[in-house]
Structures are given as structure tokens and as C-alpha cells.
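Exercise 7.
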Amino acid sequence: MEPIQLNDYKPHQLTESEIIRRILAGERELYEILLRRNNQKLFRVIRSYLKDESEVEDIMQNTYLKAFEKLYQFKHSSTYGTWLIRIGINEVLARLKEKDKVVHLYQRSSEEKKNTILEIPDKNQLNPEKRIIRNEAKQLLENAIDSLDAKYRTVYVLKEIEEMSINDISECLKISKSNVKVRLHRAKNTLKERLYELAANKEDVFGFGFSRCDNITEKVMQQVLA
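Solution. The predicted structure, written as C-alpha cells, is:
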């Protein structure tokens, strides 16, 4: 597939509604803009349910393709990102039900322990000492978040890492705003204060770095433009 020159479309100047309108009018290549705008958020949401990265990316791809197929159904009463997350969560729950993995969802295999989930962005080259310190800090935070029950972990990731509003989280998870607040409060109280302070580096938590962003984007766009 020929690389798309997004600069030709000035993606930062296009509103979400304009992008969707033009995609529905036939400019399928513009779907890449929506992917790149939502890759990080969608990854973090699905990652809050699953630990297997290959499975997370598979669900991301399915989510994007399903969202593309149903794009004509999108109502602009909410943001595309909120609508997309809802589809992604439904995909996760369907996968878990199919594979009967709910009980054992968060058991970490010995192989998974060898893999890091957090990425340092490709453009940030740290010296070896700083890299080790940052990786260790991020791993501590990740482990602390992973220790939370799923319903608390997902709310924490959406609010504290993705900085979504209470209203949007309520809509995504189909729970009341008061329930969102309760779960967030309990999540914070469960995390150790020392580890919670490490969350200041939000951009590094459950990172979906440049190469991985490009990979999932290319896979989806190959099918969209096929």
C-alpha cells in the first residue's frame, strides 16, 4: 500500500465531523487520521482488560474495522473516541465470553513477565542509567494498576491516564456518574501513595509507541482501502 501523505490533508485543521463526512463521501484514506488520533486511547482502554499484547492489537484492529463499517451510524451527540471505545469494550467482552477467560483474565504467564508493556517513545533516547530507572518506575506503576480489580482499573486508566471526563467514562462503561466516582476513589485508595505519585508521567503509562501505532494503522488501512 502506498504511504498516505496526511500532510496533504492538513489533519490538525480538520474537525472530527468534517473527517467523518468526507470518509462517508468516499475519501476512505482519511480514516487514517481517526486511527492516529485514537490509537493511544483505544490501546490503553483495551489493555486495561487484557494483558496479552497481540490479543490487544487484534481487538484494536477488529474495533477499527467494525467502527468503519458502522461509521454511517455514528451520531455526533458524543465524540468519535467515546463511540469507538464503546465498540472496543464490546469487542473485549465478546472475546472474553467466547474464550471463557473471565476468571483467569489477569493471571500473568511466565512468558508475559518477560515482556514490557510500557514503551519509551522512539524519539526519546535516554542514557542507559536513566532508561533503567524509568523502566523500573513504569513497571512498578503498571504492576500496581494491574493489581486493581478490573472494574476499578478501567476507570482509573480512563480518568487518570487518558484524562477522560466523568461523563464520557459513564457513557463508555454504561454506569452512573456516581459509580464512576466511587470506583475511581477506591482505585486511588488501593494504590500505594508512592506508586500513585509516579502516575505524573502519564504519557509513558501503557504507551503505544510510534512503531506500534504505525503497524496497527497500516493493517487497518490496508483493509479499509482494499
